[in-house]
Amino acid sequence: MTSSAQPVGTHRFALLSAASAAVALAAADTYVVVLALTDMMAGVGIGIDALQRATPIISGFLLGYIAVLPLIGRLSDLLDRRRILLGCLLVFVVGSAVTALAVEMPVLVTGRVLQGIGGGGLVPATLALVADLWPPHRRGTPLGVVGAVQELGSVLGPVIGAVVLAWSGWRAIFWLNVAAALVLYAVIHLLGARGLPSGSAPELARSRRGRAVPVVAAVLTVLGLGVTGLALAAPEALVTDVALGAPFVPFASTSRVLTPIGVVGLGLLLVVVVLTAPRWWAVLRRADLVGAALVAVALGSLVLTFASSDPEKEVVGPLGYSLLPVGAAALIVLAWWHRRAADPLIPRGVVGARGLRALVVSLLVGAALVAVVVDVPLLARLTDTYDETGAALVLVRFLLAVPVGALLGGWSLRRLGDGAVAGVGLLLAGGGLLVMSRWTLDSVSQTVPATVVLVVVGLGMGLALAPVNNAALADSPADAHGVASSLVVVARMVGMVVGLALLTSIGLNRYFEAVRRLPDQLDTDDLIGAGVVQVQTVFLGGAIAALVGAAVAFTLGVSGRVTAAEPADADAPRFVAL
């Protein structure tokens, strides 16, 4: 064996482990703010009585996570997957640091958006990497691993947040993100140097004459980030110093960014952007920047419309009636551009046949999943048995079952088809949710029966994760695996965002209808009974989503398929020229 070619199998499991750990870290960050939200609000000067003003802290992360996923997926098809993983980790690090240093709302939201972009981009790059390192008939288990760790991260997020908050403030959560992401960056970089594939698609040609530019850009980037970070941190020893405090004096208001030192830091970063423009602009043009912008506008409009809505009053958020027409117009222009562009963002043939059906299933899984995640704790809190922590522990029974189901689903693909595994899983989930739609306060307090139902629903939803990804990857061209994976993730997240708004709104309508039918003299038990009706309605909506998803999933195929082009011996060494 020469130094230029090494068996991928030697280190592929190590790379999968490192990339999966990064995915879990990003998934944990999605939910880590649940317990820290009120502290974060206080940290940027927002009182608990203005909870609606904290919406951008959550919607900003979702916006970054969803809106640019197709672009990152496309970039992972054009460039080295490992480089995309490393780049996303760096964006996640910067976003976490900005969030940790924020003392004003715009800065905090900016940090959360950057965290969403970096964290979201890790998922399609990792899924596409699985397609690079394993043949189609052997991808099930590694895809199951990725799905499992993503769901496990969702479980660990609130737990990690609670542990950190027990001994430190909310900012420590995000500094922990920085440390963990930097460790994973070093591990993935080291593994890449030990013979793993350096690229899954041809890289754009690089000029040898500009070798000094990356060095200068790296130095300026470090300086720019350091100076900007110093401006955000505003150390008291410097700010209060007569001589050294002048650069920290704001030009207007009390913003730490609009200061001489803040402007210098941002200026250095702007110089880096201009200096490196010839390199990244060529990549973005090849990735279809126009298509990416249109997709971002469409998805961003959808996220901001539903994520910012108040379900008690509306399904569509305050800006929705302006944003939805904008998003619809962007979709129309995108359809026209997709036919016109020579190399569109979403290559032709990706969203078609089984790929489109896989996206529909992923969308419905997201809607069913969010029904359980939101309303199981709500129902538990309506009882006299559970406090806030106890209600979260009830949900944990479901959340722990999902990654187990993801592993089982991936393993089952070695013998069964995508449709059989996903369809059976969603039938189980739908059946369990139908049972839950008849739950009362006594039902959730009965530990064993409630646990059985929650575990069945969790296993069922987990079973559907790997088959959906596998179907999308198998029916997309090899040079579009990143885009295909990103679309599956986007569909699921959109299902969660839209499903939460719609199901909660329908449930609340049933709640108010039940309240109106009550006598004038209300007592607490009457209102709790109306709350149970609301939860039952949401569970029923989740059941319908799961059962419709099962019907669509069965069309993905019920028997395993082996690609003739793949080697007969799946364990034979596969070589990649470096």
What this model shows, in words?
With 578 residues, the chain is mainly α. Helix content is 72%, strand content 1%. It is built from 20 helices and two strands. The protein has helices at residues 12-31, 33-43, 55-67, 69-78, 81-101, 105-133, 140-167, 171-192, 212-233, 236-239, 260-286, 289-307, 320-340, 354-381, 388-412, 418-436, 441-445, 447-474, 481-516, 524-553; strands at residues 5-7, 575-577. A two-stranded antiparallel sheet has the order 1-2. Helix 3 (55-67) packs parallel to helix 6 and helix 14 runs antiparallel to helix 15 (388-412). The radius of gyration is 24 Å and the shape is globular. The two termini are 13 Å apart. Mean pLDDT is 80; it is low at 1-7, 195-207 and 562-578.
Output the strand order for the largest sheet: 1-2
The ordered string of helix (H) and strand (E) elements is: EHHHHHHHHHHHHHHHHHHHHE
The tally of strands reads 2
Quaternary structure:
single chain
Report the total helices.
20
End-to-end C-alpha gap? 13 Å
Shape: globular
Classify the helix fraction into a percent range: over 70%
Secondary-structure blueprint:
Elements: E1 5-7, H1 12-31, H2 33-43, H3 55-67, H4 69-78, H5 81-101, H6 105-133, H7 140-167, H8 171-192, H9 212-233, H10 236-239, H11 260-286, H12 289-307, H13 320-340, H14 354-381, H15 388-412, H16 418-436, H17 441-445, H18 447-474, H19 481-516, H20 524-553, E2 575-577
Antiparallel strand pairs: 1-2
Helix pairs in contact: 1-6, 1-7, 1-8, 2-7, 3-6, 3-12, 4-5, 4-6, 4-19, 5-6, 5-8, 5-9, 6-19, 7-15, 7-18, 9-11, 12-13, 12-19, 14-15, 14-18, 14-19, 14-20, 15-18, 16-18, 16-20, 18-19, 19-20
